[in-house]
Please model this.
Amino acid sequence: MDTRFLESLLAVVDHGSIVAAAQAQALTPAAVSQRIQVLERDLGQTLLERRANASAPSAACRDLLPAMRRIVNQAQELKRSADPAVAQGVFRLGAISTLLTAAVPGMLIALRQSAPRLEMQITPGSSAALYEAVRSGELNAALIVAPPFLTPFGLQQHPLRSEPLCLLTPEGHPARSAEEAFSGLPHIAYDPESWGGQIASRYLADRGLMPQVLCALDGLEVISDLVASGIGASLVPEWAGLQGARPLPDGAGYQRRLILLTPTTPDRAAARQAVLDALLSSLPGG
Model:
C-alpha cells in the first residue's frame, strides 16, 4: 500500500473535498480521486461519501483513520531519519573502554542539546574489532586507537586527542624511569597484540628492555587497578581520567592517537558531524 495514497485520503478528510485536497497536495482532482479508488479496492471498503462539492469519510473510514494517521506519520518519520542532512534517527557508535568513560558521557550530554532527535546505540570493543565493524557497515562510526597502518580508501580518520606514554607504578614507589621500575617490579603489560599496546612494546624494544611479564591485558582501567594494588608496574597512555601516572622523559615520542573512524562518504553526514562536534567539545584535549 502506497502511503502517498493514504496521505491523499487524509487530505480529503481534513480539507472536506477532493478539490481542496488536490490543491493542498499540488495534484489534480482526478489524481486524488484515482488514489482513493485504489485504496477502496485494496481495503474492500467505501472510504468516502461523495457529494456535489464535498466529501466526507464513511463510517468504515472513520474507524480506520487512527491507524491510517499512524502509518503516514511513521512513514514520514522513516523518511526524515534516512535524510543525510538531518541529525536524527539511530546512530551506531563503537567505543574502546577508556573512551566509553572519558568521551561518551560528555558527548551524550552535548547531543541532547545539539541533536535531541538523534538516538545513539553504543557498542564497546577493541580497536581492531570496531575498525572491522565500521569497514563492514555494522557501525556508523567508532572511537578507537588510530590503526598502525594506512587507512584504506573508503574510511576516514577524525583526530580527537593524543596521549603520550607514561609510567604507572604503585603509590610511593621511587622509580622515575621504566628501567628503574622494572628492575624491581614485574610488568603488567598493555596487551602487545592491541594497537595501543604495540606502542608500549615499541618503547621497550627501542631501549632493549625485557622486563618480566606478570600478565598482559587490553583493559587499561584493570591495569591501573592492578598497579595500584602494588604487584607491578606498567607503561600506559595518559588517558583522560588516569590518576598517579608519571611522565616519561621521551614519552611524547610514543603517543596513542585517538580518532573517530567513519566512512569517507557516510549516509548519515549530519549525524556524523553532530557526533564529531559533540566529542570535540567535551573530550579533554580534543
Remarks:
- The longest strand covers residues 155-168.
- The chain has a mean pLDDT of 91.
- The longest helix spans residues 59-82.
